[in-house]
Amino acid sequence: MTHDDDLALALSLADAADAISSARFRAADLDVSLKADSTHVTDADRAVERAIRDRLAAERPDDAFYGEESGSAGQGSRQWIVDPIDGTANFLRGVPVWATLIALVVDGVPVIGVVSAPALGSRWWAAQGGGARSTHGPVRVSGVDTLADASLSYNGLQYWQRAGRVEQLLALADRVWRTRAYGDFWSYMLVAEGAVDISGEFDLQPYDMAALYPIVTEAGGRFTSVDGVDGIWGGSALATNGLLHDETVAAVALP
After folding, report:
1. CATH architecture of the region 147-251
2. Quick check: pTM over 0.90?
3. CA dist., res. 117 & res. 137, Å (int)
4. Which of 32, 72, 79, 175 is the S-S candidate for 64 at Cβ 3.0 to 4.6 Å?
């Protein structure tokens, strides 16, 4: 199988996910509960993941699976990683910034990424070596090469506080042109599109990051942990246009 085949499947899975999630968005009878980690889950989260998992079991029976709601199944070098609704807190409050994240990871490296945000009317996708695209055309990171001209999205201040790096974040904020907290997947897609230059956050799982990685990197950016380790396994994320990456890692490093 080629990456083209896998990307076509991932896009088809996103179509199915969008149909399910869109029908439940702002539904009066949306079922919401708390998980053991005190985060919310809705009937839409579960239904989307179940649909994707069942389809993959039928079409890629030899591939492993890892989803936020149902956990892991299977073993092997190829693993599909899914966050059925990234931004569940937004979804249940009627805020349109949420998306289904679908990734294929091969030998630990994300090679396919699809981020589908139907309430925003947007979708982004990439396959390793094939560049990154969105519903609006090809995407490319910015050419901003100085922090003084950079736009920074830090996602959630409380996560930087818990990580003991709020002082570093505030110092970085003083050095950049503009700061915002766009949040969740959207910050990273804005980096890929060149609208934001730096995005970072803590307290993440692989399913929060796997689909983002190919899109940011294929758009010409870099995606590492906050400490600069490449990939999605470090529990945090720092995405930049590449030009600002090393300087940003140094700026937020622990003493």
Report:
1. 3-Layer(aba) Sandwich (3.40)
2. yes
3. 15
4. 79
